[in-house]
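Dear support,

I submitted the protein below through the web form. The confirmation email said the job was done, but the results page showed an empty box. After a refresh the structure appeared. I'm attaching both so you can tell me whether what I see now is the final result or a partial one.
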Amino acid sequence: MAISNVAFITFLALKNTPLAYLTAYSYERLNPLHQVAGYATVTYALLHSILMSVGFIQLHARSYLLLAPQIHAMAAVTAFFVLLVFALLFKRIRYEVFYISHILMYMVIIINVGFHRPLLSTRSVIITGFAGGLWGLDRLLRACRILWYAYDNSATITPLPHGGTRIVLRRSPSRAVAGAHCFLWIPKIRAIETHPFTIIRATPLSLDSVVAAHDGFTNDLHNYAVKHPGAVLRASIDGPYGQLPN
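What the results page shows now:
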């Protein structure tokens, strides 16, 4: 159940999910299902680990717990637990910390579950490989979009009152419409991070967003705009997302 749910929560977490076209809901509308399935997966994994450990102890086979496949299982369960703790404690107060830990722990889980049940006859490694492949393809597609829209693109940033920052991109995706959102990449502010912002105006030659400064990336972006109003920075986007599929 835990391994099957790993594939399911991966499918629900994809930004470019086929479910958007089957259900007319973008990925962020499917996120509550992802969270519920995630909590269930952590519960299954913890129960599996506890019950198997108790069983080996009762059979006087503690040495079996020290074999390599079981060590990988313990690493995966530990990653599940860390993922749960960060989701409960940091998601609302430090989202960037939560997001980075989410990705790292997911990678630890996929790798260690694969080593825990590596035989094709168990089918577990097939499910794990399928989940990891889906996640990798989604990341690859998003990276390709970032590279495509990075060509001859830039963002003009202007500080606004009350902590706002206006961003005007030189290039806009053809499908961009007001009310949708894109993941913005400005390497001058954060070299390895992208953040979602709502589109307020989109034309074939530009894309406008207004960002409220809170903490992390948005605060650094606003502070830079205050010090360098009208600055033109290298930028790119991934998207758009959030609009209903046609």
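Response: this is the final, complete result; the empty box was a page-load delay. The mean pLDDT is 86.
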